[in-house]
Write a structure and sequence with these properties.
The structure holds two protein chains of two kinds. Helices cover 24% and strands 34% of the residues of chain A. Chain A is built from eleven helices and 23 strands. Chain B is α/β, with parallel strands linked by helices. In chain B, the strands form three sheets. Chain B has a six-stranded mixed sheet, with helices on both faces. A four-stranded antiparallel sheet of chain B has the order 2-1-4-5. In chain B, strands 7-8 form a two-stranded antiparallel sheet. Classes of the chains: A alpha/beta, B alpha/beta. The structure holds adenosine-5'-triphosphate and magnesium ion.
Chain lengths: 480, 257
């Protein structure tokens, strides 16, 4: 129940998350340097190895170039005036909800996040990241009973250093790319999840990210480890206030699935997208990658991308274990002046590995929507199979859709199937539905939901209905 | 029920006038047939009444139950009771017939202050309507018109009409594409649906349909105007003589303007 409510209010009409919250901030000098990196680490009382990790990443980053190969144009973030760390002053290391800054709690209530344990009938464990700091993790006890660790990454660094040391950076190395390197240097907080052997995580885990402070970047770091024969489903939701200036969001998410383990990671991304003229909005430059390390393991990414001014995001799976399975189900909606370049990479290494890609891009207004996917079958990957389906839907005459599939196969036993379609929502289709009494907006919503059905059904059930609504609202008034 | 007054319409933005002063009055309980050569404006007339945004009414008026509906959106006209069975039903991939019908039915019901039906009730209700047009229930789960044969599309239009219970049904060449048996079934369905509180306008090229559905009036449309009106015997005359003998009427009227 509370989940549905959470999303219902998260979706809102137009963009209703454009409020800011008055909280005293503990600020850092703007810009980035080794000192700033050290300060962040010191601020968080991190152990030496973590500081070193950050510094290594920072040095790597200074030698890297900002990428520009994608199909989007935008004003580059100003890295030297950005705020790399920003935390609400009321130190958020809390034992009870009563200790949370009332203003922040109010924000969460506006967002409909069921922080209040009494309201949590449906059993979602929520980790809420406000600007850069993880505020409170609910349901910790119940999870602990099952042996599941679900906490902020800062806590994990303190309390589970061996796990963090072993896995952080093992899927997305420090030097992986420009934004991942930056994140590795300055990440502020994020979520950590560890599911032990033979354990099915007893509830849906969920994180809400919110950027509040105007000039701060948000750099979360998420690490999920599923031990042998375990299972976990995780959902992240994102909102941000409206500012004229673009805000940077550069997260890194790493997933590790060992033998027979399964991780399902779902995202409903509704960052502020900027206005009609393309002013403001979030730059969403995120590196998400999962490693199917063990045999028969499975990683599934499902995403509903509706927000952000610019999105560059390619949740990927490295299929190392024999018989492992990677899935990518995506709906990316762009409207107004939004630009999205998103897709996936499936890297087949183990034998009999299998991947499925279903991507649905919807463009309306003056937006630009690109799918970029890479399927790579390495030499040793006997009998690898991939099925890709990339469909684009255009609404109106002034938007663009592009598909860039890259296929690389070094093993002749591999089987790759790729299908792509482009369709336009026609005036005649809308008229037909309107003639049957359905309003123009509902008609678009029906057509779009029909188009995305295969992907939406992959979302955790409680969110599916609300996801439908979100789609409808995003495309309201996009024809005519 | 429906009153067209000197209705002129052109293709939006292109200045091509297609309807050049249509006058027509359809009264509750009546069945009218509109016949006429290809390209004379019959479908355009139906679409203009239903509010298609591609056409702009430049002159005249459309009164429905005494009130102008020119300012209403197509969905609002549907709520008021206007139904158009399309000459070329549109395919809507991904949206199933049953989803469309449930949405339609409930939206229209709500706009008329009627109760929505719960899904089970609705299921019973539409199955009953399926029988009326002898349509296979499998069609409910299929995307609207997608991959339907020509005849199946036409039958599906009348099925929708049966479910939505409009007060004015404009049936644009519903008979074209139906086989002999299907024509009979669909016509009987239309007859059963028609009563004294609603009206039907049939657009057709074939007198044969009018053997099954007996019209009160037959109109001939040529060059964007109704040039002749008569009883059902006019349809026989057209079948015999074609439209040539009426062409002059169209131009004479045209020049008289
Ligand atoms: N959008 C449009 N743009 C240009 N011309 C149009 C448009 N719509 C209709 N027309 C023209 O208007 C005329 C009338 O078309 P309409 O479809 O109403 O004819 P009809 O009487 O229904 O013909 P048929 O018996 O062949 O179905 C035709 O010449 C057609 O080409
Ligand atoms: Mg026609």
């Amino acid at each position: 129940m509370s989940e549905t409510k959470a999303l219902e209010s998260m979706i809102g009409e137009d963009y209703k998350y454009g409020f800011t919250t008055d909280v005293e901030y503990e600020d850092f000098p703007k810009g980035i340097s080794e000192d700033v990196v050290r300060m962040i680490s010191a601020k968080k009382n991190e152990p030496e190895w973590m500081t070193e990790f950050r510094l290594k990443a920072y040095r790597a980053w200074t030698e890297m170039e900002e990428p520009s190969w994608f199909n989007a144009t935008y004003k580059k973030p100003k890295f030297d005036t950005l705020q790399y760390y920003s935390a609400p002053k009321n130190k958020p290391k809390l034992d009870s909800l009563d200790d949370v800054d009332p203003n922040i709690r109010e924000t969460y209530e506006k967002l409909g996040i069921p922080l209040d344990e009494q309201k949590m009938l449906s059993g979602v464990a929520v980790d809420a990241v406000f600007d850069s700091v993880s505020i409170f993790t609910t349901f910790k006890e119940k999870l602990a009973e099952a042996g599941v660790i679900f906490c902020s990454i800062s806590e994990a660094i303190k309390n589970h250093p061996d796990l963090v040391k072993k896995y952080m950076g093992s899927v997305v190395p420090i030097r992986d790319n420009f934004y991942a390197a930056l994140n590795s240097a300055v990440f502020s907080d994020g979520s950590f999840c560890y599911v032990p052997k033979d354990t099915i995580c007893p509830m849906e885990l969920s994180t809400y990210f919110r950027i509040n402070n105007m000039n701060s970047g948000q750099f979360e770091r998420t690490l999920i480890i599923a031990e042998e024969n375990s299972h976990v489903s995780y959902l992240e939701g994102c909102t941000a206030p409206m500012y004229d200036e673009n805000q940077l969001h550069a997260a890194v998410v790493e997933l590790i699935a060992l033998d027979d383990a399964e991780i399902k990671y779902s995202t409903i991304q509704n960052w502020y997208a900027g206005d009609e003229d393309g002013k403001g909005g979030i730059y969403n430059f995120v590196t998400k990658r999962g490693a199917c390390r063990g045999k028969n393991s499975k990683i599934s990414w499902t995403q509903l991308e509706t927000g952000s001014a610019v999105t560059l995001k390619y949740p990927s799976v490295i299929l190392q274990g024999d018989n492992s399975v990677g899935e990518f189900f995506s709906v990316a909606v762009t409207n107004k002046r939004q630009q999205a370049d998103t897709g996936t990479k499936m890297i087949h290494i183990g034998k009999n590995t299998k991947s499925t890609i279903i991507s649905k891009g919807i463009s309306a207004g003056n937006s630009n929507n690109s799918y970029r996917g890479e399927v790579k079958i390495s030499k040793k990957a006997e009998n690898a199979r991939n099925y890709s389906q990339c469909d684009s839907m255009l609404i109106g005459q002034t938007c663009g859709a592009h598909t860039f599939p890259y296929i690389e196969s070094a093993n002749p036993t591999g089987k790759i199937e790729h299908e792509a379609t482009t369709s336009r929502v026609g005036e005649d289709q809308i008229f037909y539905l309107q003639q049957r009494g359905i309003s123009e907006d509902d008609a678009i919503s029906l057509i779009v939901n029909g188009f995305c059905k295969e992907v939406l059904k992959e979302l955790p059930m409680e969110f599916a209905v609300e996801a439908n609504k979100l789609l409808g609202i995003k495309l309201e008034g996009s024809v005519g | 029920m429906l009153e067209l007054k000197d209705l002129h319409a052109e293709v939006e933005g292109e200045g091509i006038e297609i309807l050049k002063g249509v006058n027509l009055t359809v009264t509750k309980g009546e069945i009218h047939a509109i016949m006429g050569p290809n390209g004379s404006g019959k479908s355009t007339l139906a679409k203009v009444v239903a509010g298609h945004p591609e056409y702009e009414v430049t002159k005249g008026d459309i009164l429905f139950n005494g009130e102008s509906i020119l300012e209403l959106d197509p969905d609002e006209r549907a709520h008021a009771g206007v139904f158009l069975a399309f000459q070329y039903p549109v395919e809507v991939p991904g949206v199933t017939n049953s989803t469309l019908l449930r949405e339609s039915y409930n939206t229209i019901a709500a706009s008329r202050g009627r109760e929505e039906m719960d899904p089970l009730e609705f299921d019973d209700y539409i199955r009953e309507k399926l029988e009326l047009v002898e349509m296979n229930p499998d069609f409910l789960g299929r995307s609207v018109n997608a991959g339907f044969s020509g005849g199946e599309k036409k039958r599906n239009e009348i099925f929708q009409m049966a479910v939505l219970q409009p007060t004015l049904s404009l049936l644009d060449e519903t008979d074209s594409g139906l086989d002999i048996d299907a024509l009979k079934i669909v016509s009987e369905g239309i007859n059963k649906l028609h009563g004294e509180d609603d009206a039907v306008v049939l657009i057709t090229h074939y007198q044969r349909l009018l053997n099954y559905i007996i019209p009160d009036k037959v109109h001939v449309m040529i060059g964007g105007r109704i040039v002749k009106t008569g009883g059902k015997e006019l349809a026989f005359e057209l079948e015999e003589r074609g439209y040539d003998w009426l062409e002059s009427l169209a131009t004479v009227n045209g020049e008289a303007k």
